[in-house]
User: Fold this.
Amino acid sequence: MRTVAEITVDPARARVHEQGWQSWSPSTGYALSDVPHRWVDKPHRISSYRYENSQGTDVFWGEGLLAVDPGDGSPVSLVVAVSPTVSVPSIRAHFVGNKVIVSANGDVSVRTDSSVSLALAHWADEVVDKLGLPVPRPAPTIWCSWYQYFTDVTESDVDSNLALLDSLSLPVDVVQVDDGYQAEIGDWLVPSGRFADVPGLFSRIRSRGRRAGIWTAPFLVAENSRLRFEHPDWLVRSPDGTPVSAGYNWFQSLYALDTTHPGARDYLRTVFETFGSWGIDFHKIDFIYAGAIPGVRYEDVSPIEAYRSGVSLIRSAIGDAYLLGCGAPQLPSIGLFDAMRVSPDIAPTYESFNGDASMPSQFGATMNGVSRAFQHGRFWVNDPDCIVARPEIERREEWAEHVSRYGGLRGSSDGLDQLDDWGLATTRRLLSEPIPRYFVES
Assistant:
């Protein structure tokens, strides 16, 4: 890394602001005496932080974006990637004496502004102008099966909530069937035993006047999937020929699909065109960090090129359908999505299960949602994650207010029969509220 800035600060008042690699990576500001949020165990480091890096708590670390507020009234310094959709340098900051020393391993520029939030917003405005990005399309409202049923969801669960949407007259545009309809991660057109007729389910959704939505993790291949057994040559490889790990989840190892391989590309195209033939016009693509994992691919391109190529293929296959990203490298995704999850998952609990701020929790989801508010209305519509308002949700009132303030995409994910009077009224309110163009005005 080379030094790009030496900033004189007030050690007692200075703050360093990190932006992490992907949706779930912790992003927030710290006092110089704070210990920054870092990974807890290796599988989650792979799936929630930048694959190439294993930064410790002794330095501050941003992926393409890092800001320093000197704390003495001097302007804020923002260090940013020069070409964020092409190359995202890692940016490191450490404190020595009365200075913060900032270094980077690629091309960055240094700019100043009056505050961190304005610096980020002004920079984002310039990126939008430079790339000629259109105004993001407003997001539909959704009902999502995930946070009530998780992978145990059944076809009848979706049908039951579809009927309740009608009887409760909730303003939901899209019914999104989440993880659990498919047999395995990677086998998107093979139904699980809990779903007898997946195309028929989407037909019933549409017959009730709702739009059909679906969840996939298109760049992941699970160890136990048909896809891995039938096409092992479609996986991203290490130099020694073994598949690169993309983490561990669903009680099995995960691998990355090579989005440059002609066979894998044909498969992705077939999957998403088939979804279109089923009437699906809302797609949440998740865990897509896997598309940017370093490794040996069929084509010798950078991980960011491979990632953008894979997303662009999906975008082409779905036409005008609405595209929501999640678990997505943030800067490499600019210009590709209608909406973007900007945080880790919400959870029924305030704290994560292992203390890692990238894992599901209200704490991490709120922290990132605030930190990335500047992206909304510029790069895409910000998705803070779903409304969960049933009585078992810890601090549900606080989460509802966060969604009200920072939610560009509004989605309910409770079993609707589980809502009490407050939960139903709050869900109705949040689905009905107007959404501001920007959460951070420039």
